[in-house]
């Protein structure tokens, strides 16, 4: 899907919104743009995820963390596309790097 810029009237910020846009010219010569947002998947589709794909993607993340030359973002995106949860992805990082604890400064 294309990404278009849409102005938010409250504070005039511009932000990308994935949309499908169509435009037509009405009888008065005014260009009318219709934006269609992508459909949100049904709640049941998340429950029907392929656990083998998620596990394989999480294993790729772990291998990327072990490698100094491999980018870990692509395996993370693969895990998200397979409906891996944020908790599962973070747990892989926690097992690879440990849990950060803020030093106590006096």
Briefly characterize the structure.
The protein has helices at residues 43-47, 51-66, 73-81, 86-97, and strands spanning 2-8, 13-25, 31-36. By secondary structure, it is of the alpha+beta class.
What does this entry look like structurally?
- The chain has 2 domains: 2-36, no CATH class; 43-96, no CATH class.
- β1 (2-8) and β2 (13-25) form a beta hairpin.
- It has helices at residues 43-47, 51-66, 73-81, 86-97; strands spanning 2-8, 13-25, 31-36.
- Strands 1-2-3 form a 3-stranded antiparallel β-sheet, with no helix packed on it.
- The longest helix is centred in the middle third of the chain and has 16 residues, at 51-66.
- The protein is 40% helix and 25% strand.
- With 106 residues, the chain is α+β, with helices and mostly antiparallel strands.
- The protein is elongated.
- α2 runs parallel beside α4.
- The protein is built from 4 helices and 3 strands, in the order βββαααα.
- Mean pLDDT is 76; it is low at 1-18.
In terms of DSSP E residues, the strand content is: 15-25%
* Straight-line N-to-C gap: 53 Å
Backbone shape: elongated
User: Taking all residues together, what is the mean pLDDT?
Assistant: 76
Secondary structure: helix percent: 25-40%
Low-confidence runs: 1-18
Order of helices and strands: EEEHHHH
Per DSSP E runs of 2 or more residues, the count of β-strands stands at: 3
Number of domains: 2
Count of DSSP-assigned helices? 4
**Major sheet: arrangement of strands:** 1-2-3
Gyration radius, in Å: 21 Å
Major sheet: size, sense and barrel closure? 3 strands, antiparallel
Which class do the helix and strand fractions yield? alpha+beta
């Amino acid at each position: 899907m294309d990404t278009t810029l849409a102005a938010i009237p409250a504070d005039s910020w511009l932000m990308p919104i994935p949309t499908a846009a169509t435009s037509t010219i009405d009888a008065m010569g005014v260009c009318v743009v219709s934006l269609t947002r992508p459909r949100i998947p049904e709640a049941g589709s998340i429950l029907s995820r392929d656990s083998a794909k998620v596990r394989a993607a999480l294993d790729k993340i772990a291998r990327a963390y072990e490698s100094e030359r491999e980018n870990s973002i692509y395996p993370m995106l693969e895990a998200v596309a397979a409906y891996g949860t944020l908790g599962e992805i973070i747990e892989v990082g926690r097992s690879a790097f440990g849990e950060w604890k803020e030093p106590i400064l006096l």
